[in-house]
Amino acid sequence: MITVNEHYAKLQASYLFSDIAKRVAAFQQSNPDKDVIKLGIGDVTNPLPPVCVQAFHAAIDEMATEAGFRGYGPEQGYDFLREAIAVNDFQARGAQVQADEIFVSDGAKCDSGNIQELFSLETRVAIPDPVYPVYLDTNVMAGRTGGYADGRYSGIVYLESNRENNYIPALPSEPVDLIYLCFPNNPTGSTITKEQLKVWVDYARANKALILFDAAYEAFIRDESLPHSIYEIEGAREVAIEFRSLSKTAGFTGTRCAYTVVPKECMAYDAQGNGHSLHALWNRRHCTKFNGVSYPVQRAAAAIFTPEGKAQTKGLIDGYLDNAKIIGSAITQLGFEYVGGDHSPYIWVWGDRDSWDFFDLLLDKAGVVCTPGAGFGRCGQGYIRISAFNSRENVITAMERISQALG
Ligand code: MLT
After folding, report:
1. What architecture is the 6-47+308-406 domain classified under in CATH?
2. How do residues 224-243 score in pLDDT, each as one tens digit?
3. What is the CA(132)–ligand 1 centre distance, in A?
4. Which pLDDT tens digit goes with each residue over 288-305?
5. pLDDT value at position 207?
6. What lines the ligand 1 site, CB under 6 Å?
7. How far does the centroid of ligand 1 lie from the alpha carbon of residue 65, in Å?
8. Which of 14, 115, 300, 403 shows the smallest number of beta carbons within 10 Å?
């Protein structure tokens, strides 16, 4: 008899963003005349940068020739891309990451969900609250948690981020082995300083723990004193894996390209205390389960590291950050408190009411989709997240409609 993975039964309803999409579809079906503006899921709306499009076309033309055709590529990514990443995203900022420590993939969602396979089921996991749901749900699926009650899974150590701690969680008060951190943060949009991040690196080194650092939004940082990478912090190479994505950086949500950095010093330990290289284990997993990102996509990705590519991606992100300012100022005028938006595409608004009620109110009265904070965890209750990913025109219209609905 085939038996089911019963851990799936512990999961809450459907995946947050699928749940929202269903609610919006139902609303649109019963209100076919209402125009809906989506500031919910962080999905980019601007076209790919022209340098990426040119590189994409050129690579497809190469593939159409006998000499230029390529079949399976290296599972870890082509050297031209790995080298461009190592030099531009890390070495240029003083972070010592080498090209062969970079694993190119089709998404930071997949990588941050799959990485937990490398760790034992006994691993004590610390997860922020509120949080991007993938970290938590994949640990639930794997069986690292107990049941769900009152907004929490037993067996998880929750790292609470709230107004009191300025959305930077405190170190856990009980021992943990695996720590998820995300800065600039999704969903709160908050950032972390080098000094604050060093506290976590020092903790991980002292406790032989590992940090999974999600830096998918680093390209939105505009204060150069803030760390773009955890490897800007001394000692992090021993205790941190970092996830990066081109989705928000260069508009690749539909094109798919991301990467994970696993430094050669990073270890996980067996029951006898012997260290095992996580670089070797992730390489083994990657080669077994993944056949690489397509050649044209990797060529398009490498184009962002050219001078024109850097200027064009910065222009894209500046546009979204300007949208975030418009959202923030409308929210302030309405008398709500918020954080985020300065170094992040997300504005985290304290609504002082149930998150889903606020979500429904904005959808019904303004035809605007946001994300209810409660969907990111218990500490998100009372908040909504508004995303800056849309056209300027739509953002202005959405905020006018919200102002009218709530004003
Ligand atoms: C979000 O809206 O939180 C993210 O865009 C979802 C994702 O990146 O998978």
Report:
1. Alpha-Beta Complex (3.90)
2. 999 999 999 999 999 999 99
3. 7
4. 999 999 999 999 999 999
5. 97
6. 41-42, 109, 132, 186
7. 37
8. 14
- Ligand 1 center–CA 4 separation, angstroms: 28
Residue nearest to atom 9 of ligand 1 (CA): 109
Cα dihedral angle (242, 246, 247, 252), rounded to 10 degrees? -150
The HSE-up count of residue 121 (CA atoms within 13 Å, CB side) is 8
If one residue of 182, 186, 247 were mutated to test the ligand 1 pocket, choosing by the most ligand atoms within 8 A of its CB, it would be: 186
Distance 244 CA to ligand 1 centre (A): 13
Spatial CA neighbour of 264 closest among 100, 133, 66, 72: 100
Q: What is the mean pLDDT of residues 28-33?
A: 94
d(CA 184, CA 70): 37
pLDDT at 100: 98
pLDDT above 80 for 14: no
- Ligand 1 atom nearest the C-alpha of 245 is 8
CATH class for the domain made up of 53-305: alpha beta
H helix or E strand, kind and range, residue 340: strand 337-340
324-337 pLDDT, tens digit per residue, is 999 999 999 999 99
- pLDDT score at 108: 98
Q: For a substitution probing ligand 1, which of 132, 138, 348 has the most ligand atoms within 8 Å of its CB?
A: 132
**pTM, full prediction:** 0.97
* C-alpha 43 to ligand 1 mean position (Å): 7
Tell me the CB-side half-sphere exposure of residue 235, using CA atoms within 13 A: 16
